[in-house]
Design goal:
- There is one protein chain.
- Residues 110-117 have low confidence and may be disordered.
- The radius of gyration is 23 Å and the shape is globular.
- It is built from three helices and six strands.
- The protein has one domain.
- It is α+β, with helices and mostly antiparallel strands.
- Strands 2-6-5-4-1-3 form a six-stranded mixed beta sheet.
């Protein structure tokens, strides 16, 4: 039986998620918007939903189920739909700016050493 890791949508984002229009296709979700929760064993996401419904912490709209095998499902009003994590990109500009600052410091270092002599 598959085990699903529950990711709970942070409370301050829940209202905006509920009022957002429904769009088809895979949802793009950000890890920073979720808090990791418990793990539940269930044959399907719907079975996991019904198993948690009677518990103290039912799945709510916006919560995620991660099967660990690359399958991420988001709970919406219409059921469970496919989702994927959106990870922040490493900005090449920040790296090149850091390199330019180091070059600038190296250029000014000999001048500072000469001025102190």
């Amino acid at each position: 039986m598959p085990a699903y890791r529950i990711h709970r949508l942070k409370d301050h984002l829940r209202a905006s998620f509920r009022s957002a229009p429904h769009v088809s296709g895979a949802a793009a979700v950000k890890p920073r918007d979720y808090e990791p929760g418990d793990t539940i064993e269930a044959p399907s996401p719907y079975a996991a939903f019904f198993a948690t419904r009677d518990s103290g912490a039912p799945l709510e709209v916006g919560d995620l189920l991660d099967s660990g095998a690359g399958s991420l499902r988001i709970c919406k009003f219409v059921g469970f739909e496919e989702a994927h994590w959106v990870l922040p990109e490493v900005k090449a500009e920040a790296e090149s700016a850091g390199g330019q600052m180091a070059e600038s410091a190296a250029r000014h270092l000999p001048e500072a050493a000469a001025a102190s002599e």
